[in-house]
TrEMBL record:
Its cofactor is pyridoxal 5'-phosphate. Keywords: Isomerase, Ligase, Pyridoxal phosphate. Pathway: Amino-acid biosynthesis; D-alanine biosynthesis; D-alanine from L-alanine: step 1/1. HAMAP family: Ala_racemase. The lineage of its organism: Bacteria, Pseudomonadati, Bacteroidota, Cytophagia, Cytophagales. Its EC number is 5.1.1.1. It catalyses: L-alanine = D-alanine. GO terms for molecular function: alanine racemase activity; ATP binding; pyridoxal phosphate binding; UDP-N-acetylmuramoyl-tripeptide-D-alanyl-D-alanine ligase activity. The active site is at residues 489, 714. CDD domains: PLPDE_III_AR. This is Alanine racemase. Catalyzes the interconversion of L-alanine and D-alanine. May also act on other amino acids. Belongs to the alanine racemase family. It comes from Algoriphagus faecimaris. InterPro entries: Ala_racemase (IPR000821), Ala_racemase/Decarboxylase_C (IPR009006), Ala_racemase_C (IPR011079), Ala_racemase_N (IPR001608), Mur-like_cat_sf (IPR036565), Mur_ligase_C_dom_sf (IPR036615), Mur_ligase_cen (IPR013221), Mur_ligase_N (IPR000713).
Length: 819
């Protein structure tokens, strides 16, 4: 923060009512996430109300952890005279007001970036270029929302010389609040596209809304070749404020591009015919657009061209996401080789905190190059390391060593990455959680390479943010008190049970369910603590149920007896769930079992009734509407009969993903969410609202040119009548690429274009038709993902998305991302 604030000041800024606690202190930090507090005595906690969590819920715990100042809604009922309370009408608005105040104290240039695509990249690249010359504050990752922008502002410090902030909105009316906070002197409007069109009456309206960000800006940079955008800018922004670049003559900067083998030359000519020439190793259209925005931004700020070129030379493609991957020797690696500032470090450490416990927490980091001299950032880095209880710090760079003396034997320092690599041996690490984060110039990719498990060609990427988004989509459709059980059976629908369960645990899910006992055992062995229901526990596994605190489903009188007898012999107490068969005819009690079941329950001292459920056979399909309702009715009757005169209150549940959408009135105490969480909306009504969670990717191994009449693959099935070009991909039916995709039934996307399967899918490989495309070995091919609908693919081969997802073999490496 630029300036510490006294609680009285905060109350004045937010027009809140304040009741001061015993010893009010200066506020140095603001937190909205109870897990991220590192200097509790000087932190103000702002209780935001989100779709899934009310921040106020964490206040009692935070008081225990030493926080003494809270900004809460005026409806908040809690009291405690020891601590300071600031009560306001709207906590989010108050957060924005405090941010606007901090912003007003920053007297140096602030650049605001908005647009449909590329804003995070332009922000990062411009930030990197400016860092050759200035100390730069920039918003972390894609913190660009109503809450993200204020948090970005709190990352600004008085020593920063320039701030680069991105701004994103998704619906009408949002920009005003963000403009009030940021008031950028210089603006960049990257471009306009279809993203979030649904939130605005028209494309024009969307542009106008975004333009509000620049209403008081001195200059706005844009590309004049984007006609829709240009038209609006020319009607709303005075000409003297516009800085336009274009590939055609007559703009403030006329650009000519010379694309070469190893990159591109960008020549910018000003109206006075003075020219600047820059070279970049990027040559694709989108990157060149982003780079041009960044160059024009830096020139407008007055940065010398040779320093801009120096910055361009160091630019590397930006891996936007923090990722979690399997490391060597049973370690987990968090790869954050992309960010290199305090905010980025904070985010990465918070992500680390949410991961499963491992033997040690290890941090490998470099000097923070973009943050100026070490006295600016080193004390904070040290505080973060201490607050996060890092067991071992491995530092690279000269400046970082100053923190060494405070860490004793818990730290090891190297001057260069090479000297670290000379020292680093894989056998130093075993079952550790390792965060690798460093400035581009340190080339930490080589550290990651050494520590990660080899990934061959094919990976399944899991987007944890999308998982959270989908969870919230379903949660919003339910009553707030309804519990959610998430089905993580079958390796969490292919996504990887342990990591997904861990993420769900941190999101506040109530229950998990697996199909078999061993799946539950694996989760427990990896530190998952949520209650776990086992759908089909087999008799051989009874002792594991007890040992690992797993809750079996009981589905027949016979099974009840067996389990009860076993539990009595073992003096064990087990929680059980009852499955009622109302039409599935798979497992489950029948209506005529109810009386006998009640007696067994009354007589049992070792089995405790946790819940009763049934399962719908066609919740996703309209044609089964009537049958579903019959099932739900029958379930209601059966459970009423059972519970009559029984002094128990088990949880009642019936709905799966489709059911939540179609029969919310039958949500009872809990729902069982499955496929919807993983991004497939089975009823088809809300496809656009769910985000795709998994992307299956592979890379081209070889490209071949075939003559007319030649055939491809086994049994000569793939006849290339007119010849053409094929690419071989390292994925086959043993990886889960279904053999039914053979002979044109399936396809992959290469460079955004469909490439159809040629011939039969082999066990470990498949060939696709890339005739007429510029494809080479090493190019990426998307097998499933955002751009390829799992539903359509499944339909093509007469199956359902469930099967495609769960078939992805465990030999395909999973990588988890946070946007
Ligand atoms: C798999 C399963 C679910 C989840 O179903 P989805 O259609 O994936 O939401 C719910 N309940 C039971 C008993 C299941 O077996």
């Amino acid at each position: 923060m630029i300036q510490t604030l006294h609680p009285d000041q905060i109350a004045a800024i937010t027009s809140g009512t304040i009741s001061l606690g015993k010893t009010p202190v200066e506020i140095k930090r603001i937190s909205i996430d109870s897990r991220q507090v590192i200097d509790p005595a000087h932190t103000l906690f702002v209780a935001l109300v989100g779709a899934k969590i009310d921040g106020a819920k964490f206040i009692p715990q935070l008081i225990k952890e030493g926080l003494t100042c809270f900004l809460v809604s005026e409806n908040y009922a809690g009291t405690n005279a020891e601590v300071t309370w600031i009560r306001v009408a709207d906590t989010r608005q108050a957060l924005q007001q405090v941010a606007a105040f901090q912003r007003s104290l920053f007297q140096k240039p602030l650049i605001g970036i908005t647009g449909s695509n590329g804003k995070t990249i332009v922000k990062e690249w411009l930030g990197q270029i400016l860092a050759e010359h200035y100390s730069v504050a920039k918003s972390p990752k894609s913190y660009n929302s109503q809450v993200g922008v204020p948090l970005s502002v709190f990352g600004m410090e008085s020593y920063h010389q320039v701030a680069v902030m991105e701004v994103g909105i998704s619906k009408a009316g949002e920009m005003k609040a963000l403009e009030k906070i940021l008031k950028p002197q210089l603006g960049i409007f990257t471009n306009i596209g279809a993203a979030h069109d649904e939130g605005f009456p028209s494309r024009k309206e969307k542009i106008r809304e975004k333009l509000q960000l620049f209403q008081d800006s001195e200059f706005l940079i844009y590309c004049r070749d984007q006609l829709e955008l240009t038209e609006e800018i020319q009607s709303w922004i005075p000409l003297e404020k516009q800085i336009a670049w274009s590939d055609r003559a007559g703009a403030d900067f006329t650009r000519s591009l010379k694309v070469q083998d190893q990159g591109a030359r960008i020549i910018l000519m000003k109206a006075d015919l003075s020219t600047f020439t820059f070279f970049t190793q990027f040559a694709d259209r989108a990157s060149l657009e982003n780079i041009t925005h960044a160059i024009v931004g830096a020139l407008t700020l007055g940065m010398p061209a040779d320093l801009i070129q120096q910055g361009l030379t160091h630019l590397k493609p930006i891996e936007m996401r923090l990722s979690l991957k399997a490391g060597i020797n049973d370690c987990m690696l968090i790869d954050d080789t992309y960010s290199n500032d305090l905010e980025g470090l904070r985010i990465a450490l918070d992500f680390m905190k949410l991961q499963r416990k491992k033997r040690r927490k290890i941090l490998i980091l470099s000097d923070l190059l973009q943050q100026g001299p070490s006295e600016h950032w080193a004390p904070e880095v040290l505080r973060l390391i201490q607050a996060h209880e890092i067991d071992l710090v491995i530092g690279v760079g000269r400046e970082l060593t100053v923190i060494g003396e405070h860490l004793d034997d818990k730290a090891q320092f190297f001057e260069t990455t090479d000297s670290l690599l000379n020292w680093l041996k894989p056998e130093f690490f075993h079952q550790d959680l390792i965060l690798v984060t460093g400035a581009r110039a340190f080339g930490f990719e080589s550290v990651i390479n050494l520590l990660q498990q080899r990934i061959h060609g094919t990976v399944l990427e899991i987007n944890l943010n999308a998982l959270t988004h989908n969870f919230n989509f379903f949660k919003k459709r339910l009553n707030p008190q309804t519990k959610v059980m998430v089905m993580v059976k079958a390796f969490a629908y292919g996504g990887g049970a342990v990591e997904i369960a861990n993420h769900l645990q941190s999101m506040g899910v109530d229950y998990l369910a697996v199909a078999y006992t061993d799946e539950g055992v694996t989760l427990r062995q990896h530190g998952i603590q949520l209650p776990i229901m086992v759908l089909n526990p087999l008799e051989e596994s009874f002792h594991f149920l007890r040992q690992f605190d797993l809750e079996p489903v009981v589905f027949s009188l016979d099974f009840f007896q067996k389990l009860n007898l076993w539990a009595a012999e073992q003096h064990a107490l087990l929680k059980i769930h009852l499955d009622f068969d109302t039409g599935m005819h798979r497992l489950g009690f029948e209506e005529e079992d109810m009386k006998a079941l009640r007696e067994q329950i009354i007589a049992s001292k070792n089995l405790e009734l946790a819940s009763i459920y049934t399962h719908l056979v066609g919740a996703d399909e309209q044609i089964h509407e009537e049958f579903s309702r019959e099932q739900l009715e029958k379930f209601q009757q059966m459970k009423d009969i059972l519970l009559q005169g029984l002094d128990k209150k088990p949880l009642i549940h019936a709905l799966n993903s489709g059911g939540i959408i179609r029969f919310p009135e039958f949500q009872w105490d809990m729902v069982r969410l499955g496929i919807g969480l993983y991004g497939v909306e089975v009823t088809g009504g809300f496809d656009a609202e769910l985000q795709s969670v998994s992307t299956l990717k592979t890379t081209v191994s070889q490209v071949k040119t075939l003559m007319p009449g030649e055939t491809v693959g086994y049994s000569r099935k793939g006849l290339m009548e007119n010849g053409g070009k094929i690419a071989t991909l390292p994925i086959g039916y043993a990886d889960g690429f279904d053999r039914r995709f053979s002979n044109g039934k399936g396809y992959v996307l290469i460079q955004g274009k469909k490439a159809a399967v040629v011939g039969n899918v082999c066990m470990d490989m498949v060939m696709v038709d890339v005739s007429g495309m510029e494809v080479k070995a090493g190019d990426e091919a998307i097998v499933y993902g955002e751009e390829i609908s799992l539903k359509a693919l499944a339909e093509n081969i007469g199956t359902i998305p469930y099967e495609l997802l769960t078939n992805i073999s465990s030999r395909v490496k999973r990588v988890y991302y946070l946007d």
